Each structure stands twice: as structure tokens, then as C-alpha cells.
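Input/output pair, single chain:
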Amino acid sequence: IANRAYLGLLILIGLIPWIGWIFGIVWMIVFGFNGEKWALENRDNKYRDEEEFRKVMGGWNRAGFVAFIIGIVLFVIAILILIFVLVFAFNSYNNFDNGYRD
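Output:
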């Protein structure tokens, strides 16, 4: 939105139940490859030249990479917590069941 590349808002179609997530994933890939080029080619952007645009986008690219890494780490932590909870739940169930069989 800040670079006036409003095609990125099509990602909101991903909110449609059942098929929206498929379009959302495809559109994230397409916009990921073309978004910076579309923002640079936009006549309404407020950058003096391509060098200034690249400098600003460099900061955003680093921020995006850090957010991606944090997302992966949080996803792995969530999976580990889920595994821990499931193991604990099944272990408790087996102990409970074995207590009544004896």
C-alpha cells in the first residue's frame, strides 16, 4: 500500500472459505516475485530515483527476512509444544487406563 502497488490487496481473496487459501498461496508467490518491480514501475511513488527506492526496499527486505525467520522459529516451537501436549495426554490416558485394569 505504501508503494501504491494495490494489486497486493488481492491477497484478501484468501479470506474466502474453501478455495480462498489456494489463491492466497499462489498470489503470495506471484506478488513476491513481481511486487518490488511493480512498485518501482509505479508512476505515483515518491522516490527520487531507483537508488533511493532500492535503499528503502533493502531495509524492508531485511525486516521481512527477520519476520520470516521468527515465524519459522515460532512454528517449530508450536509444533514441539503440540507434540509435548499430545505425548503427555496419551501417557496420562495410558496410566489412567492401566490403573483400573490392575
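The chain is about 75% helix and 0% strand. The helical segments are 20-41, 50-101.
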